[in-house]
């Protein structure tokens, strides 16, 4: 099992729960939901979201840099800088050719596209910014991170919808195990809370309509759940081989030991109702880690709060793990962060096993009896040696990560 493990030596978070690992984790453990009415969505059928609070890109990144970047890249750079500092790595002293960047993103920069489209309609093609494409293309997520930290190794942006962040962490681990890199900056970032994107989700019937009480709108695994609440932000993990981390005296927060990825091959937006794809991803991740379902202590589930998705996932978890693990969905606090979700939740899994605490599922009032798993609604101390983080996305794309204590 040790030969399959990579060390998590750094974390960086920019989430609706706060900027930075400490603030994000404290609010998640407190079970304090972040959803509220969003002025930017005024006039939309659903006008609630989970925004990153007090995000001032010019102050955090410098005005000239911030102005050249879409919000999804701004989030990532702030999180990457925190993660590298947390890992004790200085990009000015490393061999950039041995540093990779693998990041997940579902959509790129729709905010930039929408803003420039308004310019086009109101003025002329000549008024459109020459920064339109460099700001909104999904690959610029990794491109800008590489520029910022001097990484000249593999540079990849993974798009597996809402599984993107989890997929990116798994592929980053594979690069280390294949000796393609010595350090990989992995994770995901997303800024999809825009009027057009949210109108699309509303028209699909995917969003919670509990507009009278935003704080309780996202209700993962609750009998009265009616859809997800959209979020934004970034999650970054710095990954290294354990021997390399030990050689430089790095603190290791936890290990990523297993990864599984599958496709449902079923429907463009709905999960396979039998849950075969996500089940196969879980089983693949556990095989990869040389572990069984009975070894898992905690699951940070995809758990978006949609009527069908939560039940499909819960049934697959019961088949793979039994009823022992403590299940949570941190989306009750952060909302659904799309391509960043899997990475942020992997980071929360790292913190859970490092600190032996299961975060609550905020918004859960009455557990759907069909879930048949233990879902704490308050922060729960517990011995956590093995955690599983699961992600599911449009197109039937699934990812599962096994995180273990050191």
UniProtKB/TrEMBL annotation:
Record keywords, A-Z: Transferase
Keyword DNA damage: no
A Pfam family: ketoacyl-synt
Record has Secreted as a keyword: no
Tree of life domain: Bacteria
Start and end residues of each Ketosynthase family 3 (KS3) domain: 3-405
InterPro entries, A to Z: Beta-ketoacyl_synthase, Ketoacyl_synth_AS, Ketoacyl_synth_C, Ketoacyl_synth_N, PKS_Beta-ketoAc_synthase_dom, Thiolase-like
Entry-linked SMART domains: PKS_KS
Coiled-coil intervals: none
PANTHER family xref list: BETA KETOACYL-ACYL CARRIER PROTEIN SYNTHASE (PTHR11712:SF347), POLYKETIDE SYNTHASE-RELATED (PTHR11712)
Family affiliation: Belongs to the thiolase-like superfamily. Beta-ketoacyl-ACP synthases family.
This protein's name: Beta-ketoacyl-[acyl-carrier-protein] synthase family protein
């Amino acid at each position: 099992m040790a030969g399959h493990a990579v060390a998590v030596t750094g974390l960086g978070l920019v989430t609706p729960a706060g900027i930075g690992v400490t603030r994000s984790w404290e609010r998640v453990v407190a079970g304090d939901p972040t959803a509220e009415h969003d002025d930017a969505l005024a006039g939309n059928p659903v006008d609630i979201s989970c925004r990153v609070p007090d995000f001032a890109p010019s102050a955090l990144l410098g005005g000239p840099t911030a102005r050249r970047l879409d919000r999804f890249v701004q989030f990532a750079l702030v999180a990457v800088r925190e993660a590298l500092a947390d890992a004790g790595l200085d990009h000015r002293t490393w061999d950039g050719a041995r540093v990779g960047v693998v990041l997940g993103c579902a959509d790129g920069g729709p905010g930039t596209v929408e803003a420039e489209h308004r310019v086009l309609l109101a003025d002329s093609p000549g008024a459109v910014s020459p920064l339109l494409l460099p700001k909104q293309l999904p690959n610029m997520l990794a491109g800008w991170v590489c520029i910022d930290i001097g990484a000249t190794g593999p540079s990849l942006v993974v798009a597996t919808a809402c599984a993107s962040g989890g997929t990116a962490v798994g592929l980053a681990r594979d690069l280390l195990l294949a000796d393609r890199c010595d350090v990989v900056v992995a994770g995901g970032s997303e800024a999809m809370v825009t009027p057009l994107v949210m109108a699309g989700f509303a028209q699909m019937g995917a969003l919670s309509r509990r507009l009278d009480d935003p704080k309780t709108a996202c209700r993962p695994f609750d009998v009265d759940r009616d859809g997800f609440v959209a979020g934004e932000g970034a999650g970054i993990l710095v990954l290294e081989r354990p021997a390399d981390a030990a050689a430089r005296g790095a603190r290791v927060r936890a290990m990523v030991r297993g990864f599984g990825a599958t496709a449902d091959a079923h429907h463009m937006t709905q999960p396979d109702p039998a849950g075969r794809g996500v089940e196969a991803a879980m089983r693949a991740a556990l095989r990869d880690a040389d572990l069984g379902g009975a070894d898992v202590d905690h699951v940070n589930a995809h758990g978006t709060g949609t009527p069908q998705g939560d039940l499909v996932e819960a049934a697959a978890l019961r088949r793979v793990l039994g009823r022992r693990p403590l299940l949570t969905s941190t989306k009750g606090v952060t909302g659904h962060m799309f391509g960043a979700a899997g990475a942020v939740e992997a980071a929360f899994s790292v913190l859970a096993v490092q600190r032996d605490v299961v975060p609550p599922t905020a918004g859960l009032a009455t557990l759907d009896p069909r879930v048949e798993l233990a879902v704490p609604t308050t922060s729960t101390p517990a011995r956590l040696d093995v955690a599983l983080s699961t992600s599911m996305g449009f197109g039937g794309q699934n990812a599962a990560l096994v995180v273990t204590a050191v």
